Amino acid sequence: MELSKSNQKNTVSHKTRLSMSLFINYFIHGMVLVILTQNMISLANSWNTSIAVVSYVISGIGIGRLMAYPVTGILSDKLNRKMFIIIGMLCYFFFLALMPIASNLVLAYGLAILAGIGNSALDAGTYTTLVEINNGSGRATVFIKAFISAGDFLLPLAVFFLSSHKIWFGFSFMIPATIIFINFINILNIKFPKINNKIFQAEIKQSTLSKPRKTIATISLLGYGYTSMALMLVFTQWITLYGKEVLSFSNITAHFLLSLYSLGSITGVLVISFILKHKSLEKPLVVILNLMTLASLVGISMIDNPVIVEILCTLFGFSAAGGVMQTGLTIFMQLFPKHRGLVTGLFYFFGSIASLTIPLITGYLSIRGIGLAFNLNILIASISTILVIILMIAVGDERKHQNVTRTKTQ
């Protein structure tokens, strides 16, 4: 009995260590997301070029994602999950360690593509691992968003500190490179647990939707992969300018709106992860959060009171960036438990398409007005809500269908 309790404690401890190691990778990922934009001027000076060229280099990350997501997704189902996490970490390490000392734009662009590949490898290995070690629950994947938010919150502060003290900008790259290298050594010494085959087989049996329903659900979720990413991209890119130029807020208030979005995101992670203790609430929760997202955007477009807009921006962060995208991916993986890696790759592939197309679309709309560019998000939120409602209808009778199937079997 005592030996059994000891083994159980060791298993829990091992799982916690593995989970924290995976979360640390996404803390670094949060930094990688903003590190080039935060260092644009320093990089332009280092390469003796313009900020516009640096922006072109940044696009390499999106190219790397689009190239890699379909491949890493398929292979992670056939090969070792740990291998893809290691590949992702190595890609991020070389990107961070070499980018500030890159001597030419060709190397810099290659490193940006490498970062995109690293992102896709990490996603393919991490999301699947977290779901599998938690017996099919996607609750742990929601915490990824909290660590991403922490990373992209702290990195700008580090860049500001280095700049104000006239310290070499490259330290903002070298510090996260050091962290991910230490975590790489840590990951190498962690044994990834085997999948519980009984639970895995049960998940496969439970996935009993008819082909038409599953097809509709799949199309809805792929579309949601695009819209859920697009919502965050439009908001983070344009909310500050929208606050200043359309709502006529002060510079401080306009910038504060983005901080409140981050605060709402972190709060959302905590609340959503608590709700997801009950797996049955995943699907209705996605619908409710998308409706909240749509309502908050409509409110921002109609109201110019600073306090109310601040509350609505916090609500948007809570509902659109608090882990609802990760919850959508979990639902997708539940539909195809034998192909979790492939599903992850496809879901984020569509998210990557959003990261490439949305800046182009909003850039064109901004010529006609900042308000038009920002309010594109209302259309996207409407489409997103329709998609998750269709998803809800498609899988809504899943339990009833499972019960009928069990009755026939008995």
Automatic annotation (TrEMBL):
Predominant location:
membrane
Q: Which SUPFAM superfamilies match?
A: MFS general substrate transporter
Family, according to the entry, reads as follows: Belongs to the major facilitator superfamily.
The answer, when asked if Lipoprotein is one of the entry's keywords, is no
Topological relation to the membrane, as annotated: Multi-pass membrane protein
Q: Which Pfam families match?
A: MFS_1
Q: Where in the cell is it found?
A: Cell membrane
Chain ranges of the Major facilitator superfamily (MFS) profile domain: 18-399
- What keywords tag this UniProt record? Membrane, Transmembrane, Transmembrane helix, Transport
**What superkingdom heads the lineage?**
Bacteria
Protein name stated in the entry: MFS transporter
Q: Where are the transmembrane segments?
A: 21-41, 47-71, 83-102, 108-130, 142-161, 167-188, 215-240, 252-276, 285-303, 309-333, 345-367, 373-396
Q: Does the keyword Ribosomal protein apply?
A: no
